[in-house]
Amino acid sequence: MPMSYHAPVYRQAPPQSKTALLMDFENLIIGLENNDPTPEKPFSIAGVIQYLERQFGPVIYRKAFADWSNSRFRKYAVDLSRVGVELQHVVRTGFNNKNAADTHLVIEAMDCMLHYPNIDTYVIASGDLDFLPLISKIKASGRKIVGLGSQGTVANVLAENCDEYLTYGPKGVQPRPRAAADLNQVRQILRTLLTAERQGTIRRVYGVLKEQIPGFMPRNYGFHNIFDLLRQITDVTLTTLDDGDEIVRLVEGGGAGTAAPIAGDAALAPVTAGGDSDGPEDGTGENCAGGAGDEESAIPNDLLREPVVPPESVSPDPGFADYMIQTRWFIHDPRARLAILTGLYRQLSHLTSSISLESLRQQIPEAAAVTEKEWFGTLFSLIHGGCLWEDPSTSEKPLAQRAVSLFRGIGELEEFVVRYYCSLFHKAFADRADVNSRLCSALMYGDHAPEHLALFDLVLRRLSDRS
Fold it and tell me: In sequence order, what are the beta bridge partners of 146?
């Protein structure tokens, strides 16, 4: 008897649906490479087209916008052309002309709506908040708008204004959870856990939710942190202990509230979920793969709330530190980091032309004491953060021979440093609900963290404004 084959079942697109794909290719590739700089080509257009046609119907209009003279993007040109994507060249006329591709894409989208009324779905491949007005226009015309961006680089406001939002990562195209995700699954998991264990610490509850709900994040449900989410679930109550910690208990018969402190509960020891990391064994960053690793199943003690301990007692959370080492290359010694950032700014601010990375390193004595990963990881963050401008004419040369100059508009060291930290922490800010100035300062400056809280308050305010 012949064996039968059951093909995977996908949602069938409406028979008359037609789709246009417009790609801010620079934004997409920079986001992917920032997440994981190790693959030669972290993006496959063929898989994207297949997914879109399966979900939304034939992609009859395909266009990608980029500076195709830059080898960083040009290496994808053959793959794009093979699947019928038209390449629109974006000419760079200055150091700070970052919105050129955005402008071309917006004009193309408006022209497409005018001349191709049969297209009813528009896929905008970008995570840039600047496209929000375009999205509003497309939705107002009665068309469906779908966003596509690299994981961890998507502006939340942009994603929530799209009818659907897709993210691209190592596993290909994946739908991004909506902020209004159903809390019923969370409620059921909490009832099962608290019925069996009577009560649980915030760390325990958060860990179990992450274990049982893939990709669980409070932001997926429209909440900034786990505390805000739990307060909306009438089945449980938060109880404040004498030491300031909070535990979660089941409320019999429903009803929400926050109970008063219970004297005897202060001795309840926090229980972490399985998979909590002990943190890195050393500070070299040698285990860094450059890509986004799995997030910790446990949650740090400090979750966007005022900690009970004074600022002087703040120390790096092992889960957060391990996450940063897995996803970013940075200089771990705070004195060396500050000296190198200061040296870079001072050297570049006096130059009128670009300089090779090799020559630049030779002019900064402290750079000799850091590893290759720490040095180049810092430069990558500075380039992506709008601190350094990379000369595109050197992009095909070996890394050490590529040339950079100071990005136009930076007139003081403080702005240079703030932009660097915005670039360094932007992925963590997008991925994790626990990121706050105390955690960042503790990780970067250890015992001297209280002296730098104002710096990271400013950094996180900027990141919040972007999202």
Answer: 123, 164
Q: What is the DSSP letter of 13?
A: P
The CATH number of the domain covering residues in 19-175:
3.40.50.1010
DSSP string, 152-197: T---HHHHHHSSEEEEEETTEEEEPPPTT--SHHHHHHHHHHHHHH
Mean pLDDT, the chain, integer: 76
In the block, tokens 């596509």 appear at 148
Phi/psi class of residue 279: alpha, beta or left (left: φ > 0; alpha: ψ in -120 to 50)?
Answer: left
Exposure letters 367-378 (e unless 16+ CB within 10 A, then b): beebeebbbbbb
Q: Do the bridges between strand 164-169 and strand 144-150 make them parallel or antiparallel, or are there none, so unpaired?
A: parallel
Contact between 381 and 330 under an 8 Å Cβ cutoff? The reply is yes
CATH of 184-267, picked from 3.30.420, 2.60.40, 1.10.10, 3.40.50, is: 3.30.420
| Contact yes or no for 321/279 (Cβ under 8 A) | yes
Cα gap 151→148, rounded to integer Å: 9
Helices (H), 39-128: 45-56, 71-74, 77-82, 100-115
Identify the DSSP state of 311: G
Domain 279-467 of CATH type 1.20.120.1790: yes
Alpha-carbon span 128 to 249, nearest angstrom? 41
d(CA 433, CA 27): 24
Q: Is 52 helix (H, G, I), strand (E, B) or coil?
A: helix
Segment 390-445, tens digit of pLDDT: 888 887 788 888 899 998 778 889 999 999 999 999 888 888 888 888 899 999 99
Residue 241 token pair: 């202990």
d(CA 284, CA 329): 9
Contact assessment for residue 285 and residue 216, using Cβ atoms and an 8 Å cutoff: no
Find, among 169, 158, 105, 166, the residue nearest to 135 by Cα: 158
Q: How far apart are CA 283 and CA 156, in angstroms?
A: 32
**Contacting residues for 178 by C-beta, under 8 A, at least 6 apart:** 160, 220
Query: 37-88 pLDDT, tens per residue?
Result: 666 778 889 999 999 988 888 999 999 999 898 888 889 999 999 999 999 9
66 Cβ partners below 8 Å, 6+ apart?
A: 25, 26, 29, 73, 87, 88, 89, 90, 101
Q: How far apart are CA 140 and CA 461, in angstroms?
A: 31
Task: List CB contacts of 446: < 8 A, sequence separation 6 or more.
Answer: 315, 316, 334
Domain boundaries along the sequence of the chain: 19-175, 184-267, 279-467
234: its two tokens: 């009438």
